Write a sequence for this structure.
């Protein structure tokens, strides 16, 4: 999806992001997501979220879907993709 234009969003803290993240990811901590939705573009924009354990990514996925984002994929824990 990311290769096709989906936005890859790391919903961990800035400190976790600085230590390691997936290539091409942007960092928007899950607690800041409601205030930073504008950074994601249109609700038609596909979004892929991930975090450290999968819990925050699940929260982010739910929040985005509640805000009208229709194509949201939760990659789950970052450790599964490194």
């Amino acid at each position: 999806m990311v290769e096709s234009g989906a936005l890859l969003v790391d919903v961990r803290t800035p400190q976790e992001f600085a230590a390691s993240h997936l290539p091409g990811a942007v960092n928007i901590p899950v607690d800041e997501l409601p205030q930073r939705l504008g950074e994601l573009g249109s609700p038609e924009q596909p979004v892929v979220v991930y975090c450290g354990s999968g819990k925050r990514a699940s929260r982010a996925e739910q929040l985005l879907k509640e805000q009208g984002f229709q194509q949201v994929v939760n990659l789950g824990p970052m450790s599964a993709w490194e």
Observations:
- The chain has one domain: 7-80.
- Strands lie at 7-10, 26-27, 47-51, 72-77.
- The longest helix spans residues 55-66.
- The radius of gyration is 11 Å.
